[in-house]
TrEMBL record:
Classification via PANTHER family: CYCLASE-LIKE PROTEIN 2, KYNURENINE FORMAMIDASE
Keyword Secreted: no
Record EC number: 3.5.-.-
Top-level taxon of the source organism: Bacteria
Family matches, as InterPro entries: KFase/CYL, KFase_sf
GO molecular function, one term: hydrolase activity
UniProt keywords, alphabetically: Hydrolase
Enzyme class: hydrolase
Protein name: Cyclase family protein
Gene3D superfamilies tied to this protein: Putative cyclase
Amino acid sequence: MYQLLSYPIKQKQPAWPGNPTFSLEPYNSISSGDIANTCTIHLFNHYGTHLDGPMHFYDKGVSLDKLPMERFFYHNPLLIDIPKKPGEKIIPEDIIPYERELKKADLLLIRTGFWKYRLDQPETYEQNGPAISSSTARYFQDNHLHLKAVALDFISLASYSDTLDGDLAHQIMLGMYHDNFICIIEDVNMKGLPSGFMKKTAAVPLIIEGIDSSPITMWAEY
């Protein structure tokens, strides 16, 4: 069975506070007498379900379009459930119990249950989400270099309630202090997915020259 993990891109969805979002501007319209329907898309590259590449928090990091395509396809995706409340951080002790399974994974999906706030309490989803602590980012870098990416069911690796530690966590994950980088997939819809290993997953970005990160189409087979 296949399941779409990307939220549809549309107006008035939760976003990191202060960032631009999305709008769709008609250009040609059949109803207005044109031969075809076309439009202009105004889309911030960190809106909706998106993948953070190495250049996002590290100016010497490679741009997303230069990553090999295999970075976006995962053959051993592992989903684990780590319930978290607003503002709570995922710490290494939350991850260590899954150490054996994680050694086999090329993508880690972390489901906190916070996706429920996206619809019911969007301001909380934006402003006080869970986060990956900087110590957990170091844990991934020190112990799981085989991971291509970590995916999250909340708006950002960082919480708006603690941007200082969140910035550091991004820098560590994306390779500022290491030779390796682990991509970050944020705002992922994991509702209804089974926990454990899935058959395969993909997170395919827009291929735009020189871009740090991009919205993605993400799906899973299980």
